[in-house]
Amino acid sequence: xxxxxxxxxxxxxxxxxxxxxxxxxxxxxxxxxxxxxxxxxxxxxxxxxxxxxxxxxxxxxxxxxxxxxxxxxxxxxxxxxxxxxxxxxxxxxxxxxxxxxxxxxxxxxxxxxxxxxxxxxxxxxxxxxxxxxxxxxxxxxxxxxxxxxxxxxxxxxxxxxxxxxxxxxxxxxxxxxxxxxxxxxxxxxxxxxxxxxxxxxxxxxxxxxxxxxxxxxxxxxxxxxxxxxxxxxxxxxxxxxxxxxxxxxxxxxxxxxxxxxxxxxxxxxxxxxxxxxxxxxxxxxxxxxxxxxxxxxxxxxxxxxxxxxxxxxxxxxxxxxxxxxxxxxxxxxxxxxxx
Length: 339
Hints:
Blueprint: E1 3-12, E2 15-25, E3 30-34, H1 41-49, E4 56-61, E5 64-65, E6 76-79, H2 91-101, H3 108-121, H4 137-149, E7 155-159, H5 167-184, E8 187-192, H6 195-201, E9 204-209, E10 212-217, H7 219-224, H8 229-234, E11 239-246, E12 249-252, E13 255-258, E14 265-271, E15 276-279, E16 285-294, E17 299-305, E18 310-315, E19 326-331, E20 335-338
Parallel strand pairs: 3-8, 3-9, 6-7, 7-8
Antiparallel strand pairs: 1-2, 1-4, 4-5, 9-10, 11-12, 11-14, 12-13, 14-20, 15-19, 16-17, 16-19, 17-18
Helix pairs in contact: 2-3, 2-4, 3-4
């Protein structure tokens, strides 16, 4: 089911939460809405669900104008951050609930059979008789997804579904959700403020800020070619420097970097910690090591340039470096935007 938003606007009292958003989600895609708090991503999700109605613009499901269709008639499945399971019902009863109240009548045997199928799909076989309080948070979120899938939705909507879980459980559930999506192929819209989550899961990432789409593309496109300083900063750690650009090049310390496409004049340059190397010979930007942070996969150096600018870079675990060392930051790649 293709979803189209055409110049959608939503205002709450005097605050405009969504400013003329236009977006196409192709049938079978998993699209992540990514942005900071207050960027409008949950409001967009709720309008697609029919829980909110736009003040302007249109929402289409395929060729059908769904703008004013009530939520119960849209054919959407919704998964919330905090599960929203009925505590007095068993896991199986929670999954069956939507089928029992649906306009489409099913026999008890059909419902029981569908529940068993879904328990197998979400890898919770044998737990149908337990209550939500008797299973883990990750298992409860699997039940919430099974309940959303039970009514055979045309569109699946997920609002920060892993936000209440710890990091290891979130990582496992991300992989599992991607497998489920590949198997079922349901058009899915996923809201998160977690950049890693969006980039790991989505076919396309839509980045929002202050109610507007600032960039949309594949994970590779938004990571490798951010179109603004905001997107660069939002997608992860980035060191910021200012420099003068002349004929597509900028001088930084004892070296130069190529910045094709950036006009002459002052520019802000963003360099991710993984895009810097540490050297003991000249040719880069002189720096002093302030601290070294050891991690399982690398060492992070906290350094300071001679003008006092703080910089961070990641090096291999074998790199020998300690507090107080003098050396040079070597730039492998950077993104730059005119000031």
